[in-house]
Amino acid sequence: MSRLEEIMGYNRQFIEGKEYEPFITSKYPNKKLVIVTCMDTRLIELLPKALHIKNGDAKMIKTAGALITHPFGSAMKSVLVALTMLKAEEVLVIGHLECGMIGLHGDQVVSQLEEKGVAKEKIETLRHAGIDVDHWLDGCDQIEQGVLDTVKLIKNHPLLPPNTLVHGLTIDPKTGELTLLHQDQL
Ligand SMILES: [Zn+2]
């Protein structure tokens, strides 16, 4: 059975057994929070549990490294939509220790893409067109700096509603312990 078939089969049982019932809630975050965090597998259940976040409590935006690097990309758009249409009021940027984005250089990703069959010519074409593929795929030197840069990008965004609190933290992917890097104040 393929991974997808397994998921589809499980899903049928999930629906038939009405296992969704404990999760029913609205689209508005009860705690009025937006959380920008990493896509790391260790945080899927740990982060909500460690923060006492339940289904319906927060808007969760996940990117590699909890990094938002483009002020007019889809991650920042999600933050703005959460703060307006979805009535969130406060943003937490939560990077984590041992993140795969620490020390990652875009050229490493590019060589793996080549190994996976992406033609070198395509990558060269992008470079010639002025798209800095290597830099775009970069991680960060230190996760703390990555978090603070993301906090700064959100906080300084020209479309951020005034008085929005934007905090920066890290989480330990083993214990769930939070470390506060930046506590925003009005
Ligand atoms: Zn990570």
Give a description of the structure:
This protein has 186 residues and is of the alpha/beta class. The chain has a domain at 26-104 and 139-182: Beta-carbonic Anhydrase, Chain A (3-Layer(aba) Sandwich). It is 38% helix and 17% strand. The chain has helices at 3-16, 43-51, 74-84, 106-115, 120-128, 133-136, 143-155, and strands at residues 33-38, 58-63, 90-96, 165-171, 178-182. The chain has a five-stranded mixed beta sheet with strand order 2-1-3-4-5, sandwiched between helices. Strand 1, helix 2 and strand 2 form a beta-alpha-beta unit. The longest helix is centred in the first third of the chain and has 14 residues, at 3-16. The protein is globular and about 50 Å long. The protein starts with a helix and ends with a strand. The chain binds zinc ion (ZN). This is carbonic anhydrase. Its EC number is 4.2.1.1.
Which ligands occur here?
Answer: zinc ion
CATH homologous superfamily caption of the domain at 26-104 and 139-182: Carbonic anhydrase
Q: Give the helices and strands as they follow along the chain.
A: HEHEHEHHHHEE
User: What Rg, in angstroms, do the CA atoms define?
Assistant: 19 Å
**What is the number of helical segments per DSSP (H or I, 4+ residues)?**
7
CATH topology name of the domain at 26-104 and 139-182, in short, is Beta-carbonic Anhydrase, Chain A
